[in-house]
Amino acid sequence: MSHQLFSQSLISPAVQAQLPEGYLMRPLEITDYHKGFYDCLAGLTVVGKVSQESFRQTFESMLRCQNVYHVVVIEELKASRIVATGTLIVEQKFLRGCGKAGHIEDIVVHDSQRGKKFGIRLIDQLRYLGNAVGCYKLLLTCSETNEPFYEKSGFERKDLHMAQYLNQQQQQPQTITVEPPTTAAAPTTTTTTMATETNTNTTKQTPSEITATTTATVDSVSMIKSCDLPIKALGASIGSMLVK
Ligand SMILES: CC(C)(COP(=O)(O)OP(=O)(O)OC[C@H]1O[C@@H](n2cnc3c(N)ncnc32)[C@H](O)[C@@H]1OP(=O)(O)O)[C@@H](O)C(=O)NCCC(=O)NCCS
Predict the structure, then answer these.
(1) Where is this region: Disordered (predicted)?
(2) Does residue 76 or residue 235 have the better pLDDT?
(3) CB-defined site of ligand 1, < 6 Å
(4) Which of 116, 126, 145, 146 is the best mutation target for the ligand 1 pocket, counting ligand atoms within 8 Å of the beta carbon and taking the most?
(5) For residue 3, is it within any domain?
(6) Atom from ligand 1 closest to the CA of residue 84
(7) What is the pLDDT of residues 213-232, one digit of tens each?
(8) Ligand 1 atom 34: the closest Cα is on which residue?
(9) Is residue 2 part of a domain?
(10) Kind plus residue range of the DSSP H or E element containing 237
């Protein structure tokens, strides 16, 4: 079984070239559990308690869903730690000639590394990936606070996002505990409270796809089923966006 979630060939050399020296953009690897992946994710939302075994099982489940889950990370090589991550989930459709839609999810830059254009580079990479795998649109959902960030990446508001909490326990802020490697020291612990979900588009849309622009205050969890893996997102004030 591959140690990388998807092929390295789907990483854009042009985007990599725009990163500062010492930072590598690459697919998520099974060893990233011990490289601060969860510490980074905790800057976005509740991550819960995740054992190394749970991480491995989830990684392998995603790997089996070939060409669906594309979790990208930026690693600070000197420190061997993940400083940013973002995901493109490819949804196969029956409509649009059995086309594919790309869902951008879980964009987060470690709070110590923000303002260095890592966020923009992640979006650039996911757009490259969406084009490479044949998505006709990219979609994401974000809070109003982050709307200017996505507008800078070429997204615009579209439609109304709705959600419903299905598991109340998932909403509670929790302390995450990452198991240390057998040779390492103390576990990493982090807390956080917020969450998002996303949507975008790369080529032309029909008029019905580019009309409504509104936001909704949502206090719920939306669930999307793909392969055997549920995708959950917690929301505050949320709007749906797509690429202009
Ligand atoms: C949002 C986030 C990913 C941005 O990452 P970042 O690496 O700090 O952003 P960048 O350095 O790439 O910023 C690119 C541009 O967007 C702007 N920008 C970034 N976040 C912004 C925000 N929340 N509001 C307004 N502008 C913002 C930057 O000022 C910069 O503008 P410039 O090109 O004019 O200089 C990061 O702040 C983060 O991880 N936040 C917490 C998690 C989160 O909310 N994720 C989004 C989920 S939808």
Answers:
(1) 171-209
(2) 76
(3) 43-44, 107-109, 114-120, 142, 145-146, 148-149, 152, 196, 198
(4) 146
(5) no
(6) 39
(7) 222 222 222 323 334 454 43
(8) 152
(9) no
(10) strand 237-243
Q: From the CA of 140, how far away is ligand 1's center (Å)? A: 15
Block residue for tokens 């939302």:
45
* Domain count of the fold of the chain: 1
Question: For the segment 43-97, what is each residue's pLDDT rounded down to a tens digit?
Answer: 999 999 999 999 999 999 999 999 999 999 999 999 999 999 999 999 999 999 9
Determine the atom of ligand 1 nearest the C-alpha atom of 114.
8
User: For residue 28, what are the domain limits?
Assistant: 8-243
Look at 156-160, 228-232, 239-243 and tell me which has the smallest mean pLDDT. Answer: 228-232
- What's 78's domain CATH number? 3.40.630.30
Dihedral of the alpha carbons of 199, 201, 206, 211, in degrees to the nearest 10: 50
Which residues, at least 6 apart from 145, have a Cβ–Cβ distance to it below 8 Å?
A: none
Whether 216 maps to a domain, the answer reads: yes
Q: Which helix (H) or strand (E) holds 58?
A: helix 52-64
Alpha-carbon gap, residue 89 to 100, rounded angstroms? 10
Determine the pLDDT at residue 2.
Answer: 87
Task: Check residue 154 and give its pLDDT.
Answer: 94
Asked if the structure places residue 119 within a domain, the reply is yes
Atom 21 of ligand 1, residue of closest alpha carbon: 149
